[in-house]
Structure formats: C-alpha cells, structure tokens
Amino acid sequence: MTVRGPLAVAVADFRERVRRPAYAVVLAAAVGLGYLAVPEVDSRWVIVNAGDHRGVYNSAYVGMVTALAGALWLTVAGFYVVRGSVVRDERTGVGQVLAATPLRSSGYLFGKFLSNLMVLGSMAGVLAATGLVMQLARGEDRAVDPVALLMPFGLLAVPVLAVAAATAVLFDSVRPLRGGFGNIVWFFGAMVGVIVGQGPDAPLGGLGVQWVARSLRASLAAAQVEPVDGEFSLGLMYLEHPLRTFEWSGPDVDFGFVAQRLLLVLVAAGIALLPVLWFGRFDPARTRRRPEPTAGPPQPAPAGMPLPGMPLPGMPLPGMPLPGMPGAVAVGVPGTRRIGTVPSWLASHRGSARGPRLRAVDGFGRLVGGEVRVLRRSGSRWWWLGAGLLGAAGAVAPIAAVPAVILPLAWIWPVLLWSRLGTQRHEYGVDALLGAYPGARRRMLAEWGAGLAIAGLTGLVPMLRMLLAQDVAGLAAWGAGLVFVPSLALVCGVLSRTHRLFQASYLPLWYAVLNGIAALDFMGAVRVDGRQTGPAPLAVGALALALLAIAFLTTTLRHSRR
C-alpha cells in the first residue's frame, strides 16, 4: 500500500467538509474562542490563572493561552464536528465504491484519521491567527515572534486534537457508538480526560498543563513575585479582581516532553487503526448477515400472486398516468412490486392532517400527536424504564435536592430525543417531499410542541414536588426551562440539519449548570441558601422565544426559495 492511498482519502474528505456551511460556523467559533483566551487587560474573565498573575500579552504568552484553550475546548467540541464520515460513506454508497478499489482497510481508516486531524488542525490554525490579531489589538507587547506563538500549538494542541480525531474514527467503526449514544459517551469521557490531563501524573503529558505551570512558576520565582495561592488553573473563570502581570518569555524546550507528545500522536494513530480488526471496509461479503433459518423448504407462491420483481396487477408502471389525477404520473423503479415506500417517520403522521373538514385546532393537535409518536418511537423500553426510575427518585428525594439534582438529571435523559427536532425530515430524505406542503411553520411548531411535551413529561415529578412545596420561584424557573430546551433543540436542528449540534451545545450547558455556574442556569438549579442565583425566568423565556423566532425565520427563508 502506498502513501498516496490514505492521503487521497484525507484530501478528498477534507475538501468535501470545508465546503459545508457548518465548517464556516466552526471557524467563527474558533475566532470567538481566541477572543476569550486573550481578554481585555483589565478583564475579570480569564482562561489561565497562575496564582492571581498572568503573563504580559507577548507572542509566547498569547500562543500558550490560545493553544491551551484549543486543547481544552476544541478537543471536546471538535469531536462532534469531525465524526460521522465513515457512516456518511456507508449511507451515500461511497464506501461500496471504495470496497472495489485496492485501498486496504488500514489505508482507509488512516485517511479518515488524517482528514479529521486536518479539519481540527485548520481550526487550531484559525485560533493561532486570532491570537496574533489579539496580541496586536491588546497592545501590551506588539513584537511578534512566530516561533514562540506557534510552538505551543504544535506541542499542546495538535497531539490532543489527534486523540479526538482518532476517537472519532473509532466511534464511527463501532455500531453502538455511531449515533447519539456515542456522542454522550464521548462528552463524559472527554470531561474525565480533561480533569486527568491537567494532573501531575497525566499520561504522556496530558494537556501539557504541568509543563506550562512549571515554567510559569520558575518565571515568577525569578522575578521575585509571590503568587497569592500558587495554584495554576485552566478554564473559563470569573475573578474578583483583574490578574497582575509579569514577564514570561515561554517555556524552555524539554526534549523529554517533546518525545511524549510525539508518542501521544503515535498512540492516536494506533487508536484510529484499531478497527482494522473488525472493520469490513463496506464489503458486502464481509458484512452480510447470515440468513435466518427457515422452518422448511420454500413454498411456492399461491396461484395468481405475482412473484418478487413483477408488477402488481393493475398497478401503473413508472411514467404512466395515474387514474383520476390529471397531469400526475407514477414514479418508481420498473419491475418492482412497489411504486415507492413511505418512511416510518412519515408513516407516524398518518391521520395528523385530514384536510379542511377538520377544525384547525383539531388538525394541529393531531399533528402534534404525530410528532410525539415520532419521538416516542425513538426511545427504547430501557429509556422509558430509566425515565420512570428518575421519576420515582424525584418522588422520594428531599425537596432541597429536587431542583438541584433531580431536575437536571430528568432533563439530560431526553437529550437524544430532543436532538431529533428539526432534523428528521432531512435525515430520512423527505425534506423535499414535505417542502411542497404549504404549512412548513405549522409543522415546525408541532415539532416544538412535541419537544415541549417530552420536557414536561420528564420534568413532571420535580414540578409537582415544587408545587406542593409552594416554591413559586422554582416553578417559574421550571417553566422557563421547559420552553428553552425544545427551542434550543429546534433551532440547532433547523440550522445544522444534524442532531450533533444540539448534543454538542446542550451537554456542556447542562454540565455547567450541574457544576454551579449560575450565569448559565436555565432551570433554576443553582441556589445559595435556597435562593436562585441564575438569570431571571423572564430572560430565559425571552431567549427561548428568540431562538424559536430564528428557527421560524430560517424555515420561512428556505421554504420561500423552493
């Protein structure tokens, strides 16, 4: 196998991805991340805190903080951007074409790994360019040192991004982890990895935090500056006062650390190639399931029944006029027993729109009921069992734990169901068919109502407990969260047409609320002495309505161009 095989796969896949609108959104997010990493000189929001000190904004310090921000945030969120390429090749038939080529499974998987790394690397590159702009804009030190600026990206960000790129290939090759369940597993696994990666015993240097911290402490000691607490912390933090500054020219090159980072990249490549042990390379001969045993020899078809491949009696062939429908012709594949099939997604809506003979309210209620059936079918029996257990726990838990623990757990459970809002028509290939129907906004409102029903059902027990306890503030926050979550899910689904955007957005938001970040509390879970400290419910409700308006506007613009 030559190197051109995986490189060709990587380059072709990368070119296909950069043409998508989502790629531009990701690059814009990288610019915003660079802005947060290098805030105003007197800002209280920081990402790196070295004992209540920070370095002067020179190339070394700006490169370090932006690289650490990329290693921390792009690793978690970038996974959702790059995953799904193997599944897409299988769905579109590209994989079957590749199965007929001399390209081996190892070459294909390594090419996907390179493609994922190229996408994440381009995000890191935009982040580095943003860091350069922020250094010049902040004006503390405008002397640009390209080596000092870019070296942290090569040693801190790229090796960790390689692990995310490899894990995306691994998850795409394991059938239970291909969908939303894999996205949830990655989020919590990445959170554990981020915590472990900042520790002194992190394998292969982890995120590189300790390497940077040792250099910062040495510079503080050389400048005879006494840090307030001596702790080095990484993450988005709000401080009581701005950080004090000191000169820092960057860490010394440690060849042992460099060797560890190279080894981490090799480990990531090994993770990407691990599915060679079971990956069938889309070859039907290797992935075809065994036929189920039959009770006896095949029986002949009854007299008069057409065999498979033969048209049904009286059924119009494709291209023939349909009786009773002037100007309409049949569509389908000649020689088949069916003219077409109706997806299960569309079948769930039967009876939801019965024409002008029904009243508008009754017709909309049927439409909402159809959307609820769609979401209900997405949950297995085990999902409903888990929802029931959460409800039972909420019924017996202390009242103080209901808004702080039970409600967040109840509203993380339906994340996979909510992520389907606004995406199913596109995923099932019926978007063009339903686009001809004039009630696009009505359908979307019914989807939002179904998400609202799921939120109300899973959060019913916490709401009843707060009602019995006469917790008026908690009920108001519950109502605001009830409206906010399906609105966020719907706008993410409508904008991206994929379930991953909502999962990548909602999971960190929920995790922040669970960890007591009051500024992001949308459900009233963060309390001090029983008093809510988060945004007002009216503000959360207004934001929910704004998100819903964006979804409506996007749908209207798309429908008007048909």
From TrEMBL:
Superkingdom as given in the UniProt entry: Bacteria
Keyword Transmembrane recorded: yes
Keyword Hydrolase on entry: no
Disordered: region residues: 287-308
Residue stretches spanning the membrane: 21-38, 58-82, 113-137, 149-171, 183-200, 258-280, 382-400, 476-495, 507-526, 538-557
UniProt biased composition (Pro residues): 294-308
Signal peptide: none
Keywords from the UniProt entry: Membrane, Transmembrane, Transmembrane helix
Protein name: ABC transporter permease
Species, as recorded: Plantactinospora solaniradicis
